[in-house]
Amino acid sequence: MTDVSRESFARDPGTAATRQAMPGWGWTLAYGIISVLVGVVAFLAPFPATLAATMVVGAFFLIGGIASLVAGFRNRHGRGYALLFGALSVIAGGYMLFSPIGGALSLTLMIIIWLGARGLMELYIGFRFKRLRGLMLLLGVINVALAVILYATVPWSALTLPGFILGASFVSGGVVAIIDALSHRREQAA
Length: 190
Known about the structure:
The chain is mainly alpha-helical. The protein has eight helices and no strands. The protein has helices at about 5-10, 15-20, 25-45, 45-75, 80-100, 100-130, 135-150, 155-190. Helix 3 (about 25-45) crosses helix 4 (about 45-75), helix 4 crosses helix 8 and helix 6 (about 100-130) packs antiparallel against helix 7 (about 135-150).
C-alpha cells in the first residue's frame, strides 16, 4: 500500500503526492552502483568474466534448445525446424557450458563475422547513397578494421573480448541507473 490516494494522481501528476510515490530511487541507485562495480571487475579480470559470460550464454542456449525440442515433439506444425533448432541449441549450449574456452572462441568468431558483415554493408551503403555517406563509410571502415584486428589476435582476443563486452554493458547500464535514481531523488526532494 502507498500513502498516496488515487485521487491525488488523477488531479495533477506534478504534485508532491505524485513525487512521493517514487520512493524506490535508493534501490535503483544501489543497483547502479553494484552494476558499475561488477563492470569494473569485469574490465580488471576479463578472462574470468569471459568464462562467466560464455557459461551464461551457454545456459540460455541449452534452456532454449530444450524448450524447442519439447515444442517440436508436441507440435506438428514446424516440427522439423523446432527439432533442428533445438538440437543445434542444445549442442551449442552444452559446448559453451562444458568447454567455456572453446565457447568463448566461438562467440568471438561470431562477433568477428558480425562486425565484418556489418562493416561491408555500411561501406556498400556509403558508396551507393549520398545521405550520410561520410559517416557510413567511416562506420564501415571502423567495423571492418575491428573485425580484422580481432581475427588477427585470435585466440587471445577470444579469452578477453566477451569479458570486456560484459564489463562495458554493466558499466553503461549502471551509469544509466545511477542517473535515473538521482533524477528521481531530485524530483522527490523538489
